[in-house]
Specification:
The protein has helices at 10-23, 36-41, 62-71, 85-93, 107-117, 125-131, 144-154, 159-166, 170-186, 194-203; strands at residues 2-6, 28-33, 49-53, 75-80, 98-101, 122-123. The chain is α/β, with parallel strands linked by helices and 211 residues long.
Length: 211
Amino acid sequence: MRLALVDDHKMLLGALTEWIRNAASDIEMVAAVTTWPELLTHREFPVDVVLLDLDLKDNIPISVKLSMLKSTGVKTVLMSTYSEPNVVREALAAGALGYLVKSEDASMIVDALRSAYRGESYISAELDLALNAGDIGGAPKLSAQERRVMALYGGGEPVKTVAYELGISEETAKSYLKRIREKYRVAGFDVGTKVALRRRAIQDGILLQTD
């Protein structure tokens, strides 16, 4: 995956560049720039995925940027300090495949980039909860990967095996479980124990009852 990073905060840009290079051997950082024009004129552009700051303070609507990137075959993951549901929905509707809040755990970045590269959408746990907060009373909306984690873990596998089966780190698997439990908590269901999570997975059709 060839990645470009765009953020107007140079310190963050440097830290993210270093972190991503060390965290993922399958991601090649080919550009790290502070402005939108720099991205478009960079010798490596177009890239596979762009990790783009939502607010570069350049008065160019994010919808215009997303449309332009989409037309060149570039997939976009947005990052922002904003977590208002309407801002997130607008960005996703405009063509962003991922959306991360800058306060999120850095491990989520790699997951989001890989999801976007595969053409799958990904938003951070914090935003997912905000977007689905109105759905209390019904089963929460889980991503495909969250359903896989819940099925394996609810089916009796330890976290280490869940991570191995899905090709993710143990820490990432734990993050998914934490996110799943929080989504159910917001929806009004307690799945704090493995038994409760298994029962819920069966009730919601994520896990088939075999006994």
